[in-house]
Design a protein that fits this description.
Layout: H1 2-14, H2 16-32, H3 40-68, H4 80-91, H5 93-119, H6 122-147, H7 218-222, H8 229-232, H9 245-267, H10 273-288, H11 297-309, H12 317-334, H13 341-357
Helix pairs in contact: 2-3, 3-5, 4-5, 5-6, 6-9, 9-10, 12-13
Length: 364
């Protein structure tokens, strides 16, 4: 088993570009599967969950390989998010495994809900959803206790490895395999090409055109290359610790609101109380959270993502039923016979029932 795993790791490293393209293609297919055949949404989500889990495994292997290979030099420096999450993963094993477990639950939660919907009663299905949210809340509180800083989404490093910057195939080896044999010598130059040093004149069509604009000022060239305060900070200091009770309260409310929403929905799905309660908690957390300083670009980016995620409330509860859904259905009906747009309208009609039936398509 270990030998087969080692061969797979070696194959991954030597074909990382092809595997990345295949993952992207298959992930695009999952968006168009729902509505194509019976239980197509289950097949789509099973494929999506498998791809996400495999991608997380591949990212771990590539990160280990890059870390152990002195020949690898990244063309672009890692993002602040990658530096921060990788530093915490390397610093504390509890953070690493809690973050990975949290991502694993998030990758499979919708698939689990689909299985529960087909196998158990509605009451037990909601019990399963509440249990999943309880597990996620405990893991997030553990991450909060470890870092004492606002949580980032996702809590693990994202893939930022350029396949073209990896060493050649003959020099690469799996992290679990012995180093490969030294590369063979390059073929010698043929005799009839050794003295071929006379350059042919350039054809007019191959001559680069003259510049049409003035060169950029030296300041515009150097400014993006200048170091910032975030570039020289320690990775774990890119987000400042929570200090005041108000900061802690804001983060705890933000972590617990999906659990509160699931518990209220499991008991009452006919009124607006679950939606109004979770929206109130969202706004309260936003009001209580601190304003990041000038050097807190990573924290500002996280808060901006949280603010954008509030648009998902248009697809939840009574807002979806009374406002958003009629408008979406009207748009789909108007564009059903318009060339090209009818493809998009059919896509919308296939996804509307899924938003009605499954919690995790739009869950906070």
């Amino acid at each position: 088993m270990s030998s087969a795993l080692a061969r797979y790791e070696s194959f991954l490293i030597k074909n990382v570009s092809t595997i990345s393209s295949l993952e992207s293609t298959l992930r695009s297919i999952t968006w168009i599967l729902p509505g194509r055949f019976r239980d197509a949404e289950l097949a789509s989500e099973a494929l999506s969950a498998t791809l996400n889990v495999m991608s997380m495994y591949h990212d771990t292997l590539l990160a280990q390989f890059v870390q152990n290979d002195p020949k690898y030099k990244a063309l672009i420096p890692p993002s602040l998010h990658t530096r921060y999450t990788r530093a915490w993963s390397d610093k504390d094993w509890r953070y690493k495994w809690a973050a990975r477990t949290l991502q694993l639950v998030r990758f499979t939660e919708l698939l689990i809900e689909m299985g529960l919907r087909r196998k158990v009663s509605v009451r037990n299905r909601w019990r399963g959803i509440v249990l999943l949210e309880l597990v996620k809340a405990v893991l997030r509180l553990l991450l909060l206790k470890i870092t004492r800083r606002p949580l980032l989404t996702p809590p693990i490093p994202e893939r930022e490895i350029d396949p073209s910057a990896l060493p050649p195939d003959s020099d690469t080896s799996s992290p679990t395999l012995a180093p490969s044999s030294p590369p063979a010598s390059l073929p010698s130059t043929p005799e009839h090409l050794k003295n071929n040093h006379v350059q042919l004149p350039l054809h007019p069509l191959l001559t680069p055109p003259p510049p049409t604009q003035e060169p950029l000022p030296v300041e515009d060239f150097l400014l993006p290359k200048a170091l910032t305060t975030s570039s020289v900070k320690a990775p774990t200091a890119l987000v400042h610790p929570l200090t005041s009770p108000k900061d802690w309260l804001a983060e705890i409310i933000y972590i617990l609101r999906p659990l509160v929403y699931a518990i209220m929905l499991s008991k009452d799905r006919k009124t607006n109380r679950p939606l109004t309660t979770v929206l109130f908690l969202e706004l309260l957390s936003r009001h209580l959270r601190r304003v990041p300083g000038r050097s807190g670009s990573l924290e500002r980016s996280e808060y901006a993502n949280r603010d954008r995620d509030m648009l998902w409330y248009l697809l939840r509860g009574s807002i979806w039923q009374t406002y958003t859904r009629p408008k979406v259905q009207a748009f789909a009906a108007r564009t059903a016979r318009v060339p090209l747009l009818n493809i998009f309208s059919a896509f919308i009609r296939d996804w509307i029932p899924l938003i009605d039936e499954y919690h995790y398509y739009t869950a906070p």
